[in-house]
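Input/output pair, single chain:
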Amino acid sequence: MFRNLPKVTKNLLIINTIIWFAAFLMNRMGNDTLMNLFALHFPSGSEDSRFRIWQLLSYMFLHDDTRIWHLLFNMYTLAIFGQVLERVWGGGKFLFFYLFCGVGAGLCQIGAQYVQFSYLLSRFEPDSVRTAFDMYTTVGASGAIYGVLLGYGMLFPDSRLTLIFPPVSMKAKWFVIIFAAIELLSSLGTAVGRGDGVAHIAHLGGMLFALVLILFWKKRRKMYEYHD
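Output:
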């Protein structure tokens, strides 16, 4: 299967896996340079803020080195659905779509954090709030991956997918809607203080940016314009 993957999907799998192993080894040696420089940090405005503009792109190539399932889920989903979109659109167009969704997911995550940040600034000591938010770190390709899921669901809404657990079959459009609903409910739980350490807003943001881009391409009649 890996040999038959189109080049962009294959290279994304390789890059993400190599970076995960590099981060794993470096963190075990007490070196957190990769996370400090390339994970997405919140732009708190303090002197200690580690935010850099390139992190909106680089964060999607990093994954939590303590949870390999985070990497495996994203790469498995990319391999299954990403290759389909790449074969339809070509490598160049698919790569743009993937990165657009990932950057959009990062912007949505920062936007949600900023709302919370502004609220807390007005009620607590500003320096302590900034210090707390300077610790916020977002990593993972999930925002881009959720964009890929939505893209597949919009291009092939009636194709049937079978889940491993539970072993049920459904149309792609319902699969995507269910995933979006789960992320929406989970994000509401985070908003009321029941966070689980997952960037649900980033997942929804990736789907939102995918929706906007696909609707734009449809309007301009460029949905199936091939770019390689």
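The chain has nine helices and four strands. Residues 72 and 134 are 28 Å apart (CA to CA).
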